[in-house]
Specification:
By secondary structure, the protein is of the alpha+beta class. Helices cover 64% and strands 11% of the residues. It has eight helices and six strands, in the order E-H-H-E-E-H-H-E-H-H-E-E-H-H. It has a four-stranded antiparallel β-sheet with strand order 2-3-5-6, with no helix packed on it. Strands 1-4 form a two-stranded parallel ribbon. Helix 1 packs antiparallel against helix 3. The protein is elongated, with a radius of gyration of 34 Å. 31% of the residues are buried.
Length: 423
């Protein structure tokens, strides 16, 4: 199973221009069988929220170009009327010489916003992939449960036929037939509820993929992951687009402080001025150095600086909160994946033993060594054990894949996803 290496790289992926809405209509294209690899690739390639983030990234790059143009001369023109009644047209060309760091801070802030937008693309891709992993694993869980319910229904139907014959021959009481039919109807009811859950989760997957399908392929079992918890924590911090985006936002706040402080300094510019229609009262051409000083009303500039510094502090605190939440999430996923691996071995033995107990009761019932209630209870225990194994198996599967996604280790499982933060 091979994925595109640059699945999470916006420069190497073609995104369809769709409306920026998670409720975009599902395409009429139908995939008969969808694998997990295909589901992740399609969702990461075509989801509208990713197209929206890519548009925001493109806009931020234009903002950087716009900020850099502030270093170039600016042209202005105005018209007025002279005291003598003639029309004056003033043409002025202004080249900034020194602005107290305002232009440089605006350029740096625009570059930081562009970095934040690029990291937001990666963050959104990871979020969509994670939602797809959750939905796919949940669908597999319900499919496994339905298969278990089908087996239980088949067994209860055989038990019903067997007990009906015994009731007809006067060997067993009619209450035994009523009891087994009640169990049969209970399992059928559970299966109907499972089918409803499966339909709902399949609809969610179709929304994520933007297309319909007829069947979901069962993915192969995951190989044991040997990554230690400390390594997983460090890898998650190094590859986290959320932290990278917050770092960029902190840089934006720092440049906002520089822009606010620049208002306390005068700005120097070289100006060329030409007046048309003024006659001899006005100099036709002038070249001079202009000084502009606009500190604002009262102490508004000082207040703006304090506001920007407070925002920078808030950005740093938000980054620390996100870092702690990320570490806690990695710990939970690592522990869930590790616990599921350990528990599966125990549950496999439980499934085998409960099935053997049921088969033993079924053999001993005709000779009177087991009661009919013991047979039914044994079948119920076997079913519950299989349910528990399915739940644990797919919960652990999803946790392991999400852990690999967060730590950037999906490539180790041949899921060739580029989870590195874009340069």
């Amino acid at each position: 199973m091979f994925f595109l290496f640059f699945l999470l790289s916006s420069e190497n992926i073609s995104i369809a221009k769709e409306p920026s809405s998670s409720n975009a209509p599902i395409q009429h294209e139908v995939n008969h069988v969808v694998t997990l690899e295909q589901a992740l690739r399609i969702a990461a390639d075509t989801h509208p929220s990713i197209a929206q983030r890519l548009s925001e990234k493109d806009a931020s790059e234009y903002a950087v170009a716009n900020a850099r143009w502030q270093q170039w001369p600016g042209l202005s023109m105005s018209s007025s009327r002279s005291p003598l009644g003639s029309n004056l047209t003033e043409l002025q060309l202004e080249q900034p010489l020194w602005t107290g760091g305002r232009i440089t801070a605006n350029i740096n802030a625009a570059m930081a916003r562009s970095d934040a937008a690029r990291h937001s693309v990666t963050e959104t891709r990871k979020l969509i992939i994670e939602r797809t992993i959750n939905a796919y694993a949940e669908a597999m869980r319900w499919q496994a449960r339905i298969a278990t319910a089908d087996t239980a229904i088949s067994d209860f139907e055989q038990l019903t036929a067997m007990i009906d014959r015994r009731v007809e021959n006067g060997i067993s009481p009619n209450a035994d037939a009523v009891n087994v039919r009640a169990r049969l109807q209970q399992v059928r009811s559970e299966r109907l509820q499972m089918e409803l859950q499966l339909k709902q989760i399949r609809s969610e997957i179709e929304l994520l993929l933007g297309r319909r399908f007829t069947e979901l392929s069962v993915p192969p079992a995951l190989a044991s992951n040997t990554i230690d918890l400390p390594d997983a924590l460090q890898a998650a911090l190094d590859s986290s687009p959320e932290l990278a985006k917050l770092n960029a936002e902190e840089r934006i706040a720092e440049e906002a402080i520089a822009v606010s402080r620049s208002s306390l300094s005068p700005a120097l510019s070289l100006r060329y001025q030409r007046i048309f229609g003024g006659g001899t009262l006005y100099a036709t051409d002038q070249v001079f150095v202009g000084v502009t000083y606009q500190p604002g009303h009262g102490l508004s500039s000082v207040s703006a600086i304090n506001e920007a510094e407070a925002r920078r502090t808030g950005s740093a605190q938000a980054r620390e909160v996100t870092r702690l939440e990320l570490l806690n999430r990695v710990r939970n996923l690592w522990q869930q994946a590790d616990s599921s691996r350990r528990e599966l071995a125990t549950l496999a033995e439980l499934v085998s033993s409960t099935q053997q107990v049921y088969e033993s009761c079924l053999r001993q019932f005709p000779v009177g060594r087991r009661t009919w209630l013991e047979v039914l209870l044994a079948r119920r225990d076997a079913t519950q054990a299989q349910y528990a194994m399915s739940d644990t198996q797919w919960a652990g599967y999803a946790a392991a894949l999400k852990l690999d996604l967060i730590t950037g280790n999906l490539a180790a499982r041949n899921y060739r996803l580029n989870t590195e933060v874009l340069p």
